[in-house]
Give the backbone structure.
Amino acid sequence: MSNREDLKQWIRKLLLGLPVTRASYFISLWRKGNLHVPDEYQLDELDRTASKLAVSAVDTNVFTLFCLPDANIARRAAIFSTILTKLARATAGRIGSHGRNKRMIYFGTTVKFKHAINATYIDDFSLSDAFLYTRAISKVSNSKKGATGAGNSQFFPEVICVYNPDSPEKSIYEFKPHVVFIDCGREQELKWLRALLTVCRDSQIPVVGWELDPFSSHAEIFESFGGSVVYFPNNDPTNKDRTLADLYLDQTIYEILPVVLGGPDCDILNEEIFQQKKILTELTRSVQSSIHANSVKVFWKTLRLLESIPIPVEVYNAEAKSFWGIYSLTEYFIALEKGLQASQVGGGRWNELSIKALTKLKEIYQKVRDSTPLWNYLSNLCMDRSEIDHLRVVTFPNKSQKQLFSYMLISRLDITEEELLNDSRILLRTLKEFANPSEDDRQIFTKHTIDPIIVGFPGQYDKDAFSKTLRFNPKILLFKHQLSSLKSILNEFNRVEKDHLKKTVKSLKRISGLNTEVNVPARIDSYKISDYFEEIQLEKIGVKGSTKSPINSLTNIGNLESELGQLFDTDIDQPDEVLSKVDITDSTDKERQVFVENGFEIVFEEGFKLRVSDDDKVNIVKQAGIDKVFVRSVKHGDRLLVVHNSSRESLYDLIISRIHTHPSLEIHMTVLRRWREEFVKKYLFWKNKMSGRNLSEFLSILQDKGSDITTTLAVCNWLDGTTLRPYDKMDILRVGEILDISFVKDNYTRIAKAASRIAGIHIALSRKLNTWLQGGLGSNAIDDLEILDKETGLMVGDLKSSIRIFTVQSINEINESVLVKEIGILEKN
């Protein structure tokens, strides 16, 4: 028998031998089909396997993290429901019909999972009553949830939900759970995970977790606490019969075709960028202070931007300031000049290398400014139609790059995204949007053969999306020197897959207690670079032609990027905002700084600290409610309200982070995203089409059309998202007419309704929050079970765990340059 068949039989024997397989409740749920999950999802063999292993992990008290193969919420609901039922039967068997039910705490980031449980049934018994909330458990702990189909339904555990806590141990001490669930979702690192696992380990509480990104840090954290990790490889959701062994023994090979940007000017640029990476690698090794470290980060960020910029430099510099969180190249160079001035004390190797790096970077900037390779190629690509029945999907690293490219298509080529799709069968998406498509995109994909074109390399946050996109045998655009980095990334993915198999086998043995050894078969490499590469011959403007050459004709020059990836990607490639923010004011490059030169560190009595810029505003708690004040006016003894672990988060941000994936609101969020993206894009086009156009002129045109607004601030607030939409829905229509936005003209009523839904929840929360503050912040001052929104089931308790009040102990000036992205983050002191 081969090693492959050995492994398959070993896993089968292990799963059949688990005690849970013979438990009456498990047979009732899984063999008799009494478990019904939402969205008419048909449970499959992987769901059964994950549920068996999760129950066994609880029985053996082994901290276990499951890396699931897809984002299907019903799969998680099935695992959760199986453990709920197990605990209910344990309660019924131990105490008959008397005594306290068991308790479980669910730690997560959104309320979408609660909705899935609310739609889950065992026979005709809904599990919705299990979700009870913080500080409200005593109200229902002895209730009898009478239902006919679930037998022991009155014994179901009481479930407490906690979202993004800053001190998760408080919930453990208060509620003393029997089991803890941790929903990591797609987060890269939950800041509160280590603290939670520490208290669970010390209290000997079983922990079951799941995540959707196999490249996140959560598995490593679980393992550091002696936990196990079970990886489920990517799965074809249409095949319901595949087992865990089938997935691991899959022999499919995915081939990636490099499309190299070439031509005389491009070849020179390629060599310049490669030499700059050598310099920056040496500069990185010379870091001796935080100022040095921050400067190096900006050097790498600037170089990566020059390498991947998809539109002409002058346009990027002009329009980047309209997008929150990204900076123009001009701004980066200003920051580098300041950083070098601050760090060049005492001379030495650092000074020599930093001057050399800045000089080289300016030379590269000039070359990209003269001719932007990606724009030359992609703009030419968008003029050609795809093959019959084929759909080319151009994927960008983030939303801002996609939006800027879309803006350029309108302003330079007069092509909208809709026209691009309908006429040329080309779709623009971010890497994450393609890897996790919306329902509308799924419908489009089913009608075509998909040909993805990846623009640039992924950041640390995008590895999972990148690996999923590679399964479509895509093309990837890059410079010649990046080919070795592509090879390295593919080698890493192949190594990770093999490592996941070994770890999973080890975890299965530990959870099951099975002592039988098995030879783990060698996995073939799933990801392979093509034997050939396509080279595009670019000219100053446009494309001359293309050729195919053997991949081994290029010299392997090493792997500088991958060596530094872990150091810089997490600082460079932040996750996309749920609703992208924009800054439409006419601020200068000097006003938008990469570094904060003047700031404060606020230390709180509760053991936390917060770094803020000197022009930041914070939420200060007063008797009448909450006021926003400049940080300079904060003093010892003041109480500050901090939302979502960050001083810069608003109540809107908090609400949206909780509910943006809720099924009843997803369509509203989609409408609001589209409204924001189309408004910003078309406003920029309108503004730049004619000299002198600005917010004042736009306001005047609005007023001529009948609008009652009187200040440009109102328009600015619509654009940057401070307000989700105009109060008067006819102003939405007026915006659509002025800027000729078909989507807005056709859907202005839907936009108004969508924004009103979110605003209604915000108003309800604000009122409850003021009640809470006026009640002295006591735990019973506000009822966590009180409904904020009936349709979503959103309760006060879903949000309050992310709202904290801190007392100021001291406030101290910061005497060093700090990156803007490091400002506003709440940290333990």
